[in-house]
Amino acid sequence: MSVTNRCHDRTTTRSGRRWQPVSDLHAEYVERGGRFFVCPVCVKTRGLQDSTWADNAEVAGFPAVFEYTTGGALVFNY
Question: Tell me: the pLDDT tens digits for 40-58?
Fold first, then answer.
């Protein structure tokens, strides 16, 4: 018996609007000045020093994140 998770098959929201592709959301975020900070400890632990990062992503520790967040809105996802 095959089980399908209907949640992942949805192409529209409950209100009937289409979901935006993640690539579009990422591009919009970058266009509006959004930045991504990559944990340096995680990079080193996982051997990702030579990785290519997404647009506006940088390896930065807490001091850089703290400086960036002073005086503005913040969304933090760990």
Answer: 999 999 999 999 998 889 9
Residues 6+ positions from 43 with CB-CB distance below 8 Å: 49, 51, 59
Sign of the Cα torsion 33, 30, 42, 21 reads positive
Say which residue the tokens 């994140």 belong to. 65
Distance CA 45, CA 55 (A): 22
**pTM (2 d.p.):** 0.59
For strands 57-59 and 36-38, give the pairing. parallel
DSSP readout, 29-66? HHHTT--EEE-HHHHHHTT-TTPPPPTTEEE--HHHHH
